[in-house]
Design a protein that fits this description.
- With about 100 residues, this protein is α+β, with helices and mostly antiparallel strands.
- It folds into two domains: about 45 residues, no CATH class; about 30 residues, no CATH class.
- Helix content is about 20%, strand content about 10%.
- The protein has a three-stranded antiparallel sheet.
- It is globular, with a radius of gyration of 15 Å.
- It binds zinc ion (ZN) (2 copies).
- One zinc ion binds next to loops.
Length: about 100
C-alpha cells in the first residue's frame, strides 16, 4: 500500500537530495510532510523552515488527510507532557506510529 496519494507526492514526502541535508534548503523540495502530525505543507523558501499547510495534493488533487497536530499535543498532554519540544516524548510520538497504532 502506498503511503501517499501519488508518485509525485510520495517522492516529495520522502525527500532525499544529495546536495541538501534539509528539505527546507533545497529548491527542488516543494512539499514537506510531517509524519508525526500527518501534515502536508508547501515550503516557503524564505531562508527559514516555514511551510504552509495544504488540504489537497497539488499534483493529483486528492484531498489530503486532516492534520493530527492538535491531537498530537492533546495526547501528549494527557500523558503529562506539556512541553514536547523540551521534554522527552515516547518513541511512537516521534513518528506517525502513535496514530497508525503500530
Ligand atoms: Zn497526489
Ligand atoms: Zn537539493
Amino acid at each position: 500500500m502506498k503511503k501517499h496519494c501519488c508518485d509525485e507526492m510520495q517522492s516529495q514526502a520522502e525527500f532525499a537530495c544529495s546536495v541538501h541535508d534539509s528539505a527546507s534548503d533545497c529548491p527542488d523540495a516543494l512539499v514537506s510532510y510531517s509524519d508525526k502530525f500527518r501534515e502536508y505543507g508547501l515550503f516557503v523558501h524564505d531562508g527559514g523552515t516555514s511551510s504552509k499547510a495544504i488540504g489537497f495534493c497539488p499534483w493529483c488533487g486528492t484531498k489530503l488527510p486532516e492534520s493530527l497536530r492538535e491531537q498530537w499535543f492533546a495526547e501528549l498532554a494527557a500523558l503529562g507532557i506539556e512541553d514536547p519540544w523540551s521534554q522527552e516524548i515516547p518513541v511512537p510520538f516521534r513518528t506517525g506510529a502513535w496514530y497508525r497504532g503500530a
